[in-house]
Structure formats: C-alpha cells, structure tokens
C-alpha cells in the first residue's frame, strides 16, 4: 500500500478542500456547538504552538484523559503537530491507574477534559506533570492552564508541519483484565495502513457518513472508526453529552455508521423488549406490511433510521443476539481485532457472512494457530511493541506474528471462531480444563441475564455467576428459578460432561467499571470477580437447588 498519508496531511487536505464543511458537533446544555474543518485546523494549530512553548524535547509524551468530546480529537491532532506522542487514558480509571500510566509513559503534560469525577482521579497526577483543561466542559482547578487562555497567548503554527510516516504516533495503554496496563506502541504508518484498509473493506466514500462517538476514544476501536475514519474520509462526528442524554443525542445525530460493543446491543434489545414483549414482537413481525412499519419504528426510536453499517466489536457477540437484530433489519457486522494490531484482523460482513463466527481475515491479514490452539495474526499494522516492556514484547510478537491470547479455530469455509482466552481457561478439581467464554455465550441467550462469569477452579464442576438484566429484575424468584433452570437443562447436554454447569448464582451487586469488575470497554474482569466471590463458591456449589441467590 503506497502513498500513505498521516492524519496531519489529511487535516491539511480537508482544511484546504472543504474548509466550511462540518467536522464535529458537540452537544452542550441543550444546544450543539459546531466546528468546520477550517475552525478545527485553526484550533489544532494554536494548541500545537502552545504545546511547543513548554519547550519539551521532540517525541515527548503528552497524555489526555477525558470522555469523548470535540477537544479530545483536537488535542490529539495538536500533539501530533507539535512533534509529540499521545498517551490516551480511559476517563474512568482510578487515581492509582492514572498515576501508573503517567509515570510509566513519562508524560510531561496532561490534557484534562470532560470527566464525571476529577476529584476521584486527581491524586494520581505525579508532581511535575502540567495540566491543561479543555474548554466547555473541562475540569478546572488551581495550577491548571486553560485551553482558552493558551489560545489567546499563541499564534497558530503556519504551513504544513508533517511527521515521518514511521514515527511513533501514540502509546495506547490497554484496559487489561489482569495486571497493570501495557502501553501498545503504534506508528503513523500503522494507523494510515489500517484506516486505508478499512476504507476499502467497508466501501467508505469521502464526505458520505455521519458518526456518533460515545465509546472511549482511548480505545483502539473508537479511535479508528471515529477519529481516524473522520479525518481520512471527511466524515462528520457527533458526540454524546451524557448518559442521561444519550438517547436524545443519538436521535439528533442520526448516524449512518454505528459501533456498539455486545453489551450495548443487549441493552438496546432489553429496552425494546421492555416496551414490546417478545411474543407480541414476533406476532407483529410475522404480519406483512406491519413488519416493515415495526422495524422502521424501532430503528427510528433508536436514532438508527439512516444507519447503513452496524458494527459490534471488543468482545464476541452471541449468534442469538445477531439473529434477533437481523429480524429487525439490523445486520450487525462483527469486527475481531485488538489494540495490538490496530483494529485490523477479521470481519464478519455480508455477503461473506456466517452467524456465530468472527468472520474472515481482512485484506493483508494472515492467520495461523499455535500448537495449543492460540490465534496468531500477522498484519502490516501490528504494534511496534509494548512500551518499556521488552520481555512482554518478545512474548507477544514472534517472527512478525502477534500472539492474540485468544483460542480459536477456522471452519471448512475459512471463518474464524473464537473458543476462549488462553489465560481464562481453568482446571476443575477433576483435572479437566474448561474454557468459560463459549459456555457463557450459550447461557447468556436467556434475556434475564445481562452478565455472566463461569468459574470453577478447584470445584468438581463449573458454576455460573449471573447479574440480572433490567427485565430479569422485574421477575420474582420462582420465575427466575424456572427460567434459568430451563436454560441449564438446554445448555448442559450440549457441553462435555466436565463443562456442565452445576449451579447458577444470581449476584445482587452490579458489575461496573466503577467497582472494578468491568474494564472500560465493559468486559468482565475475571480476577477481581474471582477474588470477590471465591470464598463463597463451596457454599453455593453445595446448595440443594440449581439456581442460587447470593
């Protein structure tokens, strides 16, 4: 792939070619603030000059912690233009994690933006790190410098400052389900190659699409699909103001491309079923003409009536959920990739589509399996390595092949099927190994379940820890016992004897990012869950009933 351009070159291109075209829309207190390409480039040029005024050496690290907003993207581009490397941080980390990332990356400046609780995090800022607050919604306190003030004090950088394509662009610290986050190092080349490949795969045309940004921009999927797709393809980005206004903002934005993690698609499903129970929905969808009206009404209610690409990523999505949405005319395209390969690996999209798999390799991606069944991927945009972690880098990248940590296999048609995580496999006290992920996918077909974690290290048989969905919480205990018991009776015969679930335990507390039981991308954190609940495993296991309440 020749003539790859950096994001800065693309910014300059749209600044000249479509200066007055809308680039970003930011909801704020009931109205929308807007930025054209010309206005955005002007802000980026000013902030790049402001960053250079700090006198840092070239390639210094500049971090940013904020929920998604227009200035997140402006700051990222300004860091590039100033000659530095960005370190995005999830907006819901605790002070300890913030401190670790800032120290490990050696960041000298921290952009502090739109946050729910800066007071919870601020103790993590090491001494000597200088903070810059975003306008409109940024956290402000003594010692901060403000974006607005810096903008008044500096003239915008002139001309077309560019960066070598092989320079490091960013260090992305993974959310991690175990241990400290690792800093994934990516170059400008990696991002340029990845977005150019994605543009071809999904048939993206310049200036044609509207994006809705709400998943963390610090995550590779959102950064690629939202920020990079917009910068390379001249798309418009709309943001969500808050969780309370999410539905209203989405309806106003009317995106043509939408990315949701599996849990988002499940939450949308639960919201629909709360208003329109499954039996009634099935009846209406079976009636000609009425079925199209129902589909259109549901899409319009979600704000997805103009959507042409519905994506799911970050974790495998269940076949039952994909099929459920397909009946509504929502064909979910699953993308399988990692931070370490810049979100380029496999895609499951029509017409080459098979429900229950993660799809086929994207152009330029190669796949093979280790003797143990681990998925190995080689793409031109594999990471340069883990920052300051040579041993971990050497273990993850072997002869150009990325060890994904996922177990899997390909079927006779070349579709990839993930069967679990290498590190998640546990051994029962019978000495039998169990991969929890495929079992969890089967059990989670029950609409009363929102989250499930199958555990069982040192138990005779596995058990499943369950957090109920909104619908599940409306049911009484007898109903829950009957429904979940029926699910076990269906799922267990499909499993090997040593995999069969002995008990389902209904957990009273939600698993959230805030209590440390979910990652920022809403994956369950198995180690913390094990630590919290393992003292009770034996009691639950020996309970007389198949469904146990905590």
In short:
With 550 residues, the protein is of the alpha/beta class.
Structural class assignment: alpha/beta
Strand order of the largest sheet: 4-3-5-6-7
The tally of domains stands at 3
Mean pLDDT: 91
Q: Find the CATH topology of the largest domain.
A: Rossmann fold
What percentage of residues falls in helices of 4 or more residues? 25-40%
How many DSSP-defined strands?
28
Biggest sheet, in brief?
5 strands, parallel
* CATH architecture classification name of the largest domain: 3-Layer(aba) Sandwich
User: What top-tier CATH class of the largest domain fits best?
Assistant: Alpha Beta
Radius of gyration: 24 Å
Count up the helices: 18
Low-confidence stretches: none
Distance between the termini: 56 Å
Can you tell me the overall shape?
globular
